[in-house]
Recover the amino acids of this structure.
């Protein structure tokens, strides 16, 4: 069930942002939250806000094309994943 959920998250984000890399980033972030035992109900894991091209993680972390906003361990992990994503695309 977890793998199916992660697959749906990855594909939905990849399609929405027309970026397979961004889909993989979203999958890694959600997977990290699942590993931490976070409650991932549909209203808690915010997936996409089309108008702002933002992925929300819970209610405290935002990931957008400008970077990661938020504090705490989830935000720090999201920042590391985002940096890996940028490096994989050749952006420093």
């Amino acid at each position: 069930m977890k793998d199916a959920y992660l697959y749906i998250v990855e594909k939905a984000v990849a399609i929405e942002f027309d970026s397979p890399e961004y889909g993989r980033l979203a999958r890694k972030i959600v997977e990290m939250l699942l590993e931490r035992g976070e409650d991932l109900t549909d209203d808690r894991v915010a997936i996409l806000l089309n108008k702002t091209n933002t992925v929300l993680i819970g209610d405290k972390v935002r990931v957008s094309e400008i970077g990661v906003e938020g504090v705490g361990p989830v935000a720090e992990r999201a920042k590391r994943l985002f940096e890996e994503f940028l490096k994989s695309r050749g952006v420093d």
